[in-house]
Every structure is written in structure tokens, then in C-alpha cells.
Design brief:
- The complex is a heterodimer of chains A (117) and B (153).
- Helices cover 62% and strands 12% of the residues of chain A.
- With 117 residues, chain A is mainly alpha-helical.
- Chain A has one domain: Arc Repressor Mutant, subunit A (Orthogonal Bundle).
- In chain A, strands 1-3-2 form a 3-stranded antiparallel sheet.
- Chain B has a domain of 98 residues.
- Chain B is built from 7 helices and 2 strands.
- Chain B has a two-stranded antiparallel sheet.
- In chain B, a hairpin with a 2-residue loop joins strand 1 and strand 2.
- In chain B, helix 1 packs antiparallel against helix 2, helix 1 runs parallel beside helix 3 and helix 5 runs antiparallel to helix 6.
- The chains are: A mainly alpha (117), B mainly alpha (153).
- Chains A and B meet through helix 2 and helix 3 of A and helix 2, helix 4 and helix 5 of B.
């Protein structure tokens, strides 16, 4: 006798939302490791890589937290338009933190792969 | 801070109203922090609506503001975080109480810290009172009743 079990979509969505929330800092550090980005540009880049459906404004508090943790630096750059851009870069501490996070992520990935076999 | 100028008067009003909401949300912060946040939000709106023509200006602006979200909600964690930093720098009771109030929902750590801070304030008040009114401040046992940490009149 076979039973057809429906996937618990709500549970999966909640889990996925928690995963995205938990990995957002990691994603930001990876993006900033490539080059410097100004606020709006960085927010668009984050959104394009994470398919996030969150308000863009929520990413600024997160960037501010990364800055207060010393992982990210920022500087205002004047523009011809008179409205400056705030550029974000990865600090040295951010770079070494990212290396450690990558290590943890890879270990977690291989541990899950082993479990799935 | 240089504000954005829109051709469409309705777009200008929507933008001005949004910035007023941002100003209200962050009014509790130090002036330098307020300016930093205003500039960041202003820059975001400018970049999102850059190159807009008069006919699609309002659509682009509304879309940008909707994506940014309600300032009262999205900026709350930023306000709470900056208030904590301000409180730890200044250590003024008013800043500490505001920071605790804004962060009390952020976890058990802040609740524990609130209780400890309250005890520090209470003890700070009781020490001079004990020195001035030694017979009337402290723990008293009388008629099988005891009163603790209070000033007896």
C-alpha cells in the first residue's frame, strides 16, 4: 500500500527564510570581497544573488551592524550630482572573518553530504 | 544634505513626506547619526530614481519607496543599534534607558542587562540615603515583618 505525502510547504518556506536570514551576513561579506560597492548598488547585488523578498531598507541596519563589528568599512564619496554615495569595503578583520566563515560553511556542507549518502 | 528635486509636484510631496517619516523615526539619535542615515536613505532614493523622466518619475519613486519599506519598521534595528553605541560611549542614564527600551525585544541578554542596570541605579540611590539617614534606610525587621531596600519614613 502506498501513501502520497504532501510536502509541508509552509515549514519549508519558514526554514528557507531562516536559512536566508542566517546566511545574509555571509553573502554580504562574499560580495564585498570582490570589490567595493555603494549602498544602492550593494543592495541590488544582494537581492539579485538571494532572490530575497525583504524590504531593501532592512539591509542598511545589517550593513551598519557589520560596520560596528569592524568587518566592513565605509566612506562617503562626493558625486557631481551633489548627492554623495556611501561606499562599503571589506576590512582586514572582515577578510579573515570571511575566511573562517567559508571554512565553517564548507565543513557543514560536507557533513550534510555525508549524512545524505 | 542636498535634497532631491523632482519635476512632478506629487512626486516631490511623496519624497518629502517619506523623508519626514525617516526624520521622525531617527529623531531619538545623536545629530551625526541622524545625518548619516538621512544621507544614506537620500542616496538610495536618488540612485533608484536616477534618469527618471517627468512622466515616469512618480512611478519610479513609489516603486523605490515601496522596496525600501516603511521607515518606522525597517530602520528600527538601526535606531536600536546606534542608540546602544551612543549609550556605551556617553554612559548617560537617559541614553542607556532609551537603548534598553529599544532593545528589550532583541533578546534575553538585554532583559538581564536591564535588571542589572536597574539594581545599579537603585543601589546608587540607596548608598547616599544610607549615609544621610542610616536609621531609616535599609532592611528592617519589626513585628515579624521585614522591609527591604527602602527608606523608612
Amino acid at each position: 500500500m502506498y501513501y502520497i505525502c504532501a510536502m509541508n510547504d509552509e515549514f519549508v518556506q519558514n526554514w528557507f527564510s531562516q536559512v536566508k536570514k542566517g546566511t545574509l551576513s555571509y553573502i554580504i561579506l562574499i560580495i564585498l570581497n570582490e570589490k567595493e560597492y555603494y549602498g544602492y548598488e550593494l543592495v541590488q547585488e544582494i537581492k539579485s544573488h538571494t532572490a530575497m523578498e525583504v524590504a531593501e531598507g532592512t539591509l542598511y541596519p545589517l550593513l551598519n551592524r557589520l560596520k560596528s563589528e569592524g568587518l566592513v568599512n565605509s566612506k562617503w564619496v562626493e558625486q557631481e550630482t551633489g548627492i554623495p554615495r556611501k561606499y562599503y569595503t571589506l576590512s582586514n578583520e572582515g577578510r579573515s572573518t570571511l575566511a573562517e566563515m567559508k571554512n565553517i560553511w564548507e565543513n557543514l556542507g560536507s557533513a550534510i553530504q555525508k549524512l545524505e549518502k | 544634505m542636498k535634497r532631491i528635486t523632482f519635476t512632478n509636484t506629487s512626486a516631490q510631496k511623496i519624497y518629502d513626506d517619506y523623508l519626514k517619516r525617516v526624520e521622525r523615526t531617527i529623531s531619538i539619535l545623536a545629530p551625526a547619526d541622524q545625518l548619516e542615515i538621512m544621507m544614506e536613505i537620500n542616496s538610495h532614493i536618488y540612485e533608484a530614481t536616477r534618469g527618471a523622466q517627468a512622466q515616469n518619475e512618480i512611478e519610479l519613486l513609489i516603486d523605490a519607496l515601496e522596496k525600501l519599506g516603511a521607515p518606522e519598521e525597517v530602520l528600527q534595528p538601526l535606531v536600536a543599534n546606534k542608540k546602544v553605541l551612543q549609550a556605551t560611549r556617553s554612559f548617560k542614564p537617559r541614553h542607556i534607558i532609551q537603548a534598553l527600551y529599544l532593545n528589550v525585544n532583541n533578546g534575553i541578554g538585554f532583559i538581564v542587562f536591564s535588571i542589572i542596570y536597574l539594581l545599579i541605579v537603585v543601589l546608587g540611590l540607596l548608598i547616599p540615603l544610607k549615609l544621610i539617614f542610616p536609621d531609616r534606610t535599609g532592611l528592617f525587621i519589626r513585628n515579624d515583618h521585614f522591609f527591604w531596600l527602602r527608606v523608612r519614613y
